[in-house]
Amino acid sequence: MASDASITFEQPCPIRDVLDRIGDKWSLLVLEALEPEAKRFHILMRELGDISKQMLSRTLRKLEQDGYVHRTVFAEVPPRVEYKLTSQGRSFLEPMKSLVAWADKHHAGIVMARDRFTESAPA
Amino acid sequence: MASDASITFEQPCPIRDVLDRIGDKWSLLVLEALEPEAKRFHILMRELGDISKQMLSRTLRKLEQDGYVHRTVFAEVPPRVEYKLTSQGRSFLEPMKSLVAWADKHHAGIVMARDRFTESAPA
DNA sequence: CTGAATCCTCAAGGATACTG
DNA sequence: CAGTATCCTTGAGGATTCAG
Questions:
Q1: pLDDT tens sequence across A86-102
Q2: DSSP string spanning A85-112?
Q3: Inter-chain CB proximity B109 and A13 less than 8 Å
Q4: How far is the CA of A24 from the C1' of C13 (A)?
Q5: Whole-structure pTM value
Q6: CATH of A14-120, one of 3.90.1150.10, 3.40.190.10, 1.10.10.10, 1.10.150.20
Q7: Chain mean position to CA B3
Q8: How many CB atoms lie within 10 A of CB B51?
């Protein structure tokens, strides 16, 4: 069942595979929202503010699929579902935080460079 | 000329802005290709293998615009253009490397989790 | 050699309505 | 409450052609 009859060249570079999935519009935000504690669906909706149910659902599923998030369904009425980081999810946030810190520090400069560039080479 | 008449809410989060631009298909690859040394356009084409002129051009321009890469034009015949990392570009690669290392280490597990998930919840 | 301009395709993102 | 199904729009990615 391993189904590795032949090596494919789809993902020559792990970081690309990871970034392709986590580098979308919401994944990182969701992971960060879940970092302090497990949260329910509608709570995530509220905290993320401008995300739609559709996108949150898709994002959570992808994160669950790749093993960043664990989904727990409580057989209650009304339904309750909690999402929490897996150890892999927490592990991922560590190096990611360095990057976030870098972005915080350099963002102003980037925006300035961008503006300068745009001004000297308009439309 | 500052053109900051009003504060906009476009980029509430620096990391999102950075990832939106660097998290595309080629930017990171280009930065890594430029890390050891400055390189010419067609050299980058060759090293990246499956990138088109179009995309390489766009990617380089975006990276130049955001201040990761410096572009040097030599007034020669035939034209020669070299790209090299700026200090910001090199600086960026530092935290990025932690992430790359993380991806290398966890990629196999992610792929496995993904496959397992797909098998238990097919089409 | 280095790119810009044009055109095309496909999938990410999203609004909305429906379901268990 | 927590989703899924459907439909739509936009833009990233890419092949090709033209230009300096």
A1: 999 999 999 999 999 99
A2: E-HHHHHHHHHHHHHHHHHHHHHHHHHH
A3: no
A4: 10
A5: 0.88
A6: 1.10.10.10
A7: 28
A8: 19
